[in-house]
Amino acid sequence: MRRFSGDRLLVATHNSGKLEEIADLLSDHAIQVIGAAELGLDEPEETGADFVANARIKAHAASSVTGLPALADDSGIEIDALGGAPGVHTADWAETPGGRDFVRAMTRTYNALLDSGAAQPWIARFCCTFVLAWPDGHCETFEGYMNGRITWPMRGNRGHGYDPIFQPDGHAVTFGQMSRLEKNRISHRADAFRKLNAVFRHG
């Protein structure tokens, strides 16, 4: 495994919620975290068939343009009763002409589950893939998961995305009801980061 030896890391996301979570996770390291929006980077088209492929596209695109090591995350929710959907289309389900509307996406998810006729519990998992890419083309990949279920109605106004309808296993509240600190301890992103963290250790 290649180790990270710099002091500046580009996080290849325009999502402020993800950037905050990743910055929190990296807070124990003496690393300056820079977001893609801060550098005015365009978002590459995500044409991959899975989370790993999309994360690689984003990480390599950002690193090659800036000459900085770039960390990209691709994540989403997979629901068993919907055949794994929305999966890589998690954010697409929120797209509207005026921008992303995750209340709309969560409502679409609930309606799709009703239409499927599937009985509860509606088993689901949040998935996260981190890819850390260097300007020379090398990359390291780390995957994480959080299992749980879809719940309705929406509960909580914290977090982002589908958090208000996802109840993680072993908890009576949704991600949307948890503090950022609590969520960051158990989330799919935290699981992936625990594996990624080895890249930042020295010695």
Please give a quick description of this structure.
By secondary structure, this protein is α/β, with parallel strands linked by helices. The protein has helices at 16-25, 51-66, 102-116, 180-186, 188-196; strands at residues 8-11, 32-35, 70-79, 95-96, 99-100, 122-133, 139-150, 166-168. It is built from 5 helices and 8 strands; from the N terminus they run E-H-E-H-E-E-E-H-E-E-E-H-H.
How many DSSP E strands? 8
* Largest beta-sheet details: 6 strands, mixed
Question: Number of helix segments?
Answer: 5
| Mean pLDDT over all positions | 93
Q: What is the molecular shape? A: globular
Q: Hey, roughly how much beta strand do the residues contain?
A: 15-25%
Strands ordered across the widest β-sheet:
2-1-3-6-7-8
Helix/sheet category: alpha/beta
Radius of gyration: 17 Å
**Through-space gap between termini:** 13 Å
Question: pLDDT below 50 for ≥5 consecutive residues: which ranges?
Answer: none
Helix content: 25-40%
The succession of helices and strands, N to C, reads EHEHEEEHEEEHH
User: For this entry, what is the oligomeric state of its chains?
Assistant: single chain
